Amino acid sequence: MEIASANHEKSGPITRGLAWLEIMLGKFKAKVIEVARKTKTVGQEDPRRIIHSLKVGLAITLVSLFYYFEPLYDGFGVSAMWAVLTVVVVFEFTVGATLGRGLNRGLATLLAGALGFGAHHLASLSGEKGEPILLGLFVFLLAAAVTFVRFFPRMKARYDYGLLIFILTFCLISVSGYRDDEVLDMAQRRLSTILIGSATSVLICIFIRPVWAGDILHNLVANNMEKLGIFLEGFSAEYFKTSEDGQSNHDKSFLKGYKRVLSSKNSEKSMANLARWEPCHGRFRFRHPWKQYLEIGTLTRQCAYKIEALNSYLNSEIQMPIKMRSKIQDPCTKIISEAGQTLNELANAIKTMTRPSSVDSHIENSKTAADNLKALLHTGLFEETDLLEIIPAAAVASLLIHIVTCTEKISEAVQELASLAHFKSVEQTVTVPEQPQIVHQVTEQPFSSNAEPHHVITVDESSTGSPENENEPVLKTG
Amino acid sequence: MEIASANHEKSGPITRGLAWLEIMLGKFKAKVIEVARKTKTVGQEDPRRIIHSLKVGLAITLVSLFYYFEPLYDGFGVSAMWAVLTVVVVFEFTVGATLGRGLNRGLATLLAGALGFGAHHLASLSGEKGEPILLGLFVFLLAAAVTFVRFFPRMKARYDYGLLIFILTFCLISVSGYRDDEVLDMAQRRLSTILIGSATSVLICIFIRPVWAGDILHNLVANNMEKLGIFLEGFSAEYFKTSEDGQSNHDKSFLKGYKRVLSSKNSEKSMANLARWEPCHGRFRFRHPWKQYLEIGTLTRQCAYKIEALNSYLNSEIQMPIKMRSKIQDPCTKIISEAGQTLNELANAIKTMTRPSSVDSHIENSKTAADNLKALLHTGLFEETDLLEIIPAAAVASLLIHIVTCTEKISEAVQELASLAHFKSVEQTVTVPEQPQIVHQVTEQPFSSNAEPHHVITVDESSTGSPENENEPVLKTG
């Protein structure tokens, strides 16, 4: 240390300054490179982000034209600024969010403007001394009450922003009224500029490369299901091979994909809330059954919890003996493959919005395999072995049997979505040419044997399905 | 139907009108009662909500005084409205959120105001024709760039609101400058009114019954742990008794408590982000290790996933034979009770901010019980029984062994929190009078044997603990 500082002192202030500058420049360069790298990552992860940024820039620039052009400016004056502010706070990534905020802002301004005007009028009747006191009281009561209403879960989910703007506009109109007698004029200017800002945002958001919350939810739910399918495929290969090959060096990243499913509840919920604001678009009607996606999401997550448990046996210290492993391998891999195919097909059915055609046969197969597994365990094949060594295998077997139940529930929920959202039916022979059980399957599936999806319920009622199948669609459409 | 309508026709328009009015009044009354009931529920769930609402009302009323009093009004004029708006948008439920928004708004206004003024000046140099074009270009570029930056996960977590206000203020100042030549004056007025609004919000938020995000996170993490403990207690009673008593009719609501833990990730994350804004308060320093709570939360959730799997065996159709159940009952209940006590004590340690004293002995006990369970399974006690019937028992046993590992990990994370946050040590004899392993435990726990928490690291290094224990605190404080 001391030698170094002695060298420094010898080299003089200019050399030291240059060295310091060089270090700083190096650090700055590294920082710039890091930021550039991150920017690239953020953009590559989802290119729609770049487009969204440009859209926001465009909307703000368009609205600020009010300021530059004389004839437009003369109509609104300084209030034109509200239009710019509105675009900044209303323009969101998804159409649902933008529409929700725009409508909230517009309606809240309208209502609160009227109420504020009323409050101003009422207060002005009470004379010069009473006016500020009465106005203060109104503002206090309204702000406190509306702030409390924001805690109601239902209001929070859909109208939180509107309630905020309600307080804001009420204060603005009623309090300003004390100084400025042109309250009505001001309220009207505020409302019209806000409407212009909201309309610009919504139009640009919808007509230039729109991002629909409904699409995001739709794909999220389907992809989550797919991730579970991918895990199951990988699990089968991993669990029944490692002990033979020793340490397997495959890329195990596909085994991590399902982890995101575990914590997807909140994003599904908020997307479903936003999707409800969206008009009909692409393959979705205005009142698309978004709630049913949450149902499917919940069931998918329940399946993911089982898979999380399954995953812990991949790295368990207690490895079961190879001979036992090979005995249960057949029914286990059958269950895994059938359950994986079920999930993949359900995910695909949602993505393509067609009724899942061969899912029932996959579920039947997985149930048969589960019964085989049970029977195999029943025969007491393992009596000679140590029970401790069987535990992981038994736990895996038990989890797999549970997963079969889970996939069945998911399938039911997807079938319900298919009927609620009028999914298209596809020709069985086209989608599942390799299925031997086609005939059996058609009789079992009232949905997929029906060419006109809009008459599903009638077909259901006349079919000889189980009582649950008969009642469900009727109840849901009642 | 027809008879009813015939009766209606007979009764004349007045009677019908009255009947309709009665129905409407009834409906209205029912609606009012429902809203009142809901309001009561929302208030009772968390009485701080009522206080928060009153605080917001007070803050807005205080700031609107600017308008009513001549001397205050003269300083700011119409701009005083910005102070009211600032209170409305800045005042949040927790101190962290209010401070975060206030600081974001203040700093963003300062920076964007300066930049906007610069842009206005630069544009005005380019002549009358070039000015609007150049201003438009600046606004477009800045809005697009900053909107894109909002997608960076780190920026989004802490500075999202600031970035929004940055765009807003930049547009406001640079665009307004085109018409209004007193830009500097306007920027300064905007800044000072926003500072007044933010300061009022922050002061009222902190000094009148504050709600700290840190407190919420702290209690959330501790309560989640406690919920798992409660489940384990209930599980033990439920699983080993139902088959003897037949259908047990106990209240099973305590078995549902853990479900919330599964989806607590997002609230923990956002609270940790908000807590970082908060100054030192109560038992927390300014740089309290909030990140460590997330670590503990993640491990707790991993334990909750195992418990979710465990829960499915409570209602499993395959019930294991009573004689087998009674054989494994002892080690299983021991594991459950020790793991439950570990979780409860850890939760309590966090709540009271004292070092957990008897946790290590509970973990040791649960490990011993797990070994006993393994040994019991090892002896092949169950060879005569059907393997299929053993599966649920084996799965439960396996899950319990996993839960022991989980609680150990949680304990390590809590110990690290205890050392990072300098938890108090308590006299061992006071807290655990019934523990026979006190002597053993003191030698094993470098933290709790140390009376001065601030010298933990020195004690650690000189102690004869394992290498991991020695290195960890050193690394963390380096």
TrEMBL record, chains A, B:
| Residues covered by region (Disordered) | 457-478
* Primary site of residence: membrane
For this record, the Gene Ontology CC terms, alphabetical, are: membrane
GO biological process terms held by the UniProt record: malate transport; monoatomic ion transmembrane transport
What Pfam family is a match for this entry? ALMT
Please give, as recorded in its UniProt entry, the membrane topology of this protein: Multi-pass membrane protein
**Ion transport: is it a keyword of this entry?**
yes
What protein name does the entry list? Aluminum-activated malate transporter
Q: What is the lineage of its organism?
A: Eukaryota, Viridiplantae, Streptophyta, Embryophyta, Tracheophyta
Q: Is Transport one of the keywords?
A: yes
Q: Give the family per the record.
A: Belongs to the aromatic acid exporter (TC 2.A.85) family.
The protein's superkingdom reads: Eukaryota
Task: Spell out the subcellular localization from the entry.
Answer: Membrane
What residue intervals traverse the membrane?
A: 50-69, 75-95, 107-127, 133-152, 159-178, 190-208
| Keywords annotated in UniProt | Ion channel, Ion transport, Membrane, Transmembrane, Transmembrane helix, Transport
Instruction: Report the InterPro entries cross-referenced here.
Output: ALMT
